[in-house]
Every structure is written in structure tokens, then in C-alpha cells.
Design brief:
Blueprint: H1 2-9, E1 14-22, E2 26-36, E3 39-44, H2 45-48, H3 51-54, H4 56-60, H5 65-81, H6 87-96, H7 116-139, H8 147-159, E4 162-163, H9 164-170, H10 175-187, E5 191-196, E6 199-207, H11 209-229, H12 235-258, H13 264-273
Antiparallel strand pairs: 1-2, 2-3, 4-6, 5-6
Helix pairs in contact: 7-11, 8-10, 8-11, 9-10
């Protein structure tokens, strides 16, 4: 692996390295001296070894050793601050250094200080509003014209047969609103219900064949929404968004339901004192 890394780097610069015998069987470079004219940098091989794998495109289009030295220097800077940091952490570290202030459009400006957190929440909120507009358009000519009906059928498709309370909480709706939507889906024969054998007072609901068929029809429409909304993102950029936001979503999908009867001040206080 060490020599493969050196071989991939060599076309872009002059490399001198020293080797040290390990267990008398392998010679492993410990430090790499990257040189161009009077410019040089001495770095640990372990810092260099990741670059061909995580930055192949950058290396391919580098026009000088100075650019390579700059990239390696940034990696070394990152490792000083975060010695245990991974290559994925380094990607995020580099992205976080970009200034997002100039990205604030008229839609996300406001009277609040334009902190990064403020801009992020406004971006998420505006994306959610855009998605809802596209969703209403997509479902307009389907049997699930009401977006709430689609949300409940999609929820049942994921979690399977469940109690009404579980489905309503999963969809993050108020109980009275949820019951009304479920009753409408029952009338449409898109869901069915039966007595819960574990609790005769409760009922279990599940999606019917008719409901599953219409849901698949709607999924073909929502796939178009994804294509529209994410058109300008590469797959790698989508993966970064998922990696960063998925844990946040998992946490608050649970907390939001658990805390919906508390005040926002109580929720904030509970988060501050949580372990």
C-alpha cells in the first residue's frame, strides 16, 4: 500500500524517501520529502498514504507540486488538531472551512444574525417547503391526492402492521388529525384493521393490496421529485449530506414525538442536561 501511494503521487512531483527495515522482511518509508525547486515539505508517510484513495481527482488535475504540498499541509494541519480524525472527518473539516455567508439569498435572509446554524435551518426549512410543493403537484392526479394520506401509507409500508398510535407518531401528526386520515384510508379500502390479539381494546392496521398498488404509483411520482430536487448534486455530495444529517434525523424523530406535549423551553433544557 505504501509504495502504491508513492507511485500514484510521483507523476506530480519529485519524491525522496528514506526506508527503515521492519522485522527484517519489509522496507517501509517513514517520511516523504516532496520537492519542487526550493519548495519542499517533509511529511509522515501515513499522512500521504490516504491521498490517492480519497483525493484521486484532485491529484489528477494538479498542475504543480505546490498544489500537492498545499493539500498535504492541510491534512497535516487537520491531524495536529484532530490526531484521531479519519479521512471522512478531514473531508468535513475542509468543507466546514468554506464561507457560506455569501450563499444567503433573499429567501433565507432575515433579522436574525446570519449564523451558520441559522442559515442551515433556513435552508432545510426552504427545502422542505419546496418538497411539499412538488409533492402536491406529483400526487394531484393520483388516488392519494392528499399528501397526508400518502404519508400514512408510506409509513405503514415501512413499519408494517401497527397500532394506530404508533403509525400516527411515526408520521409525526396530531392524534385527532391522524385518526381522521386513517378513517379516510379505511373508507378507501387502502388499509384494513383488526382487533389486536394482545389487547382486545386496541386495533391493528395494515396496508391492503389496493393500498400498496396505489402507493407504488405514487412512488414513481416521488422519484421524479428526488430527481428535480437533487439534480445539481453529485452522488458523493448526497452521501455527505446523508452521513451528516441521518444521525440528527434519527435522534429527533424519537425526541420530537416524546416531547410534543412539552414547551419548547422544557425541550431545550432537557437537551442541555442530557448525557
Amino acid at each position: 500500500m505504501a509504495y502504491r501511494a508513492i507511485k500514484q503521487i510521483q507523476p506530480y512531483c519529485t519524491i525522496d524517501y528514506k526506508v527503515q527495515s521492519v522485522q527484517n522482511t519489509e522496507e517501509v518509508p517513514l517520511f516523504i520529502n516532496v520537492v519542487q525547486g526550493v519548495s519542499s515539505i517533509n511529511i509522515p508517510l501515513l499522512s500521504l498514504i490516504f491521498l490517492p484513495y480519497f483525493y484521486p481527482q484532485q491529484l489528477r488535475y494538479m498542475h504543480s507540486t505546490d498544489e500537492l504540498i498545499e493539500l498535504i499541509s492541510r491534512w497535516a494541519e487537520f491531524k495536529k488538531v484532530y490526531p484521531e480524525g479519519s479521512s471522512e472527518n478531514f473531508h468535513r473539516f475542509e468543507l466546514a472551512k468554506r464561507d457560506t455567508g455569501s450563499l444567503a439569498s433573499e429567501h433565507i435572509r432575515g433579522n436574525d444574525p446570519q449564523s451558520t446554524a441559522n442559515r442551515l435551518m433556513k435552508v432545510i426549512a426552504r427545502l422542505h417547503l419546496s418538497y411539499n410543493v412538488y409533492l402536491r403537484i406529483a400526487l394531484k392526479d393520483t388516488p392519494l391526492e392528499a399528501t397526508e394520506k400518502f404519508a400514512f401509507l408510506a409509513a405503514l409500508n415501512v413499519i408494517g402492521e401497527s397500532s394506530k398510535t404508533h403509525v400516527i407518531n411515526y408520521a409525526m401528526m396530531e392524534m385527532s388529525t391522524g385518526i381522521d386520515i386513517l378513517n379516510r384510508l379505511l373508507k378507501d379500502n387502502f388499509i384494513s384493521q383488526r382487533i389486536d390479539p394482545a389487547d382486545k381494546r386496541a386495533k391493528l392496521i395494515r396496508i391492503t393490496d389496493a393500498g400498496f398498488a396505489v402507493l407504488q404509483q405514487c412512488f414513481s411520482k416521488t422519484a421524479m421529485i428526488r430527481e428535480i430536487l437533487l439534480h445539481d448534486l453529485t452522488e458523493d455530495e448526497e452521501k455527505i449530506c446523508v452521513q451528516i444529517l441521518y444521525p440528527v434525523q434519527e435522534k429527533h424523530a424519537k425526541l420530537a414525538v416524546e416531547n410534543k406535549h412539552r414547551t419548547i423551553e422544557e425541550i431545550l433544557e432537557a437537551q442541555h442536561v442530557a448525557p
